[in-house]
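A favour, since you know our structure tokens better than I do. It will help me judge whether the discrete encoding reads sensibly. The space below this message is yours for that.
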Amino acid sequence: MADLASLATLRCLGADLARVEETLRASVITEDALLTEIASHLIHAGGKRLRPALALTAAYAGLGDTDAPEAVIRGAVSVELVHLGSLYHDDVMDEAASRRGVDSVNARWGNLRAILAGDFLLARASELASSLGTEVSALLAATIGRLCEGQVRELAHAYDVGRTEDAYFAAIAGKTASLMATSCRVGALAAALPRPTVDALTAYGQKIGIVFQIVDDILDVVATDEQLGKPAGNDLVEGVYTLPVIRALAAAESGALRDALGRPIDRTESMRVRDLVRSNGAVASAADVARAYAVDAADALAPLGRGPVVDALGTLGDALIDRIPAVLA
């Protein structure tokens, strides 16, 4: 969990994440043993739990580094359930074989059960959110809609070598950054923080979500299967051309890359394409964009003043970028 290193300096985060984990596991227990097993699959596989950590830390920004109220724990669990439900659906769309180092749900139980289990996780998230009041409930519902909108925007440009950076950012603002922003906002609302603080944390979450997705897209080009916990180069196989690929295509010497893309490719071909993307400075250029968003994220926290919690949030963007191998970034 290298990207949580800056937040891990907070005294209460570890204990509160343990509370989140316990509540998360309990939230998917049903009378049907098979549904419980399927819904629990990726929970037991682990994960960074970045979204719950953001919800908790947003609450600490107003409450101080102290144990989170139970409402904040429920809010943190609700955003993680949305994330997990989206992963179940994503893996069906991508026909993914693995996730977090284990078989994907669709690979193990089939697409129909994976879709239904994903729907179940989203329903449980909504149920938890409803216990936190109408504003949080409406916010989570709207966020699920934005996730879908972002995913549709991405699908609209599958295998599109002319995909623009504007189209890329519009997609990731919905499919990734919106849930990061909501994680911060839910934590702040559940902690009953002042409205200006809630808004500042929401703006921060949106920017940090962009950083996270750019880094994730870079890692798909430069990291190994083992480092990712899923097949590397999968975006290229699925025809999703992300920021480093878009920038590589824009380079003067992109002819070989352009000829290789615009159509389905297999895993072997994707390795060659990854080499082409890494060869012309596009990865470093994309990393620079991530750094600029990390600065914007830290700047969004200015209304909150200084302190251990705000400082930890402010350095999270740099911690995310540090996941990129230094030689490439």
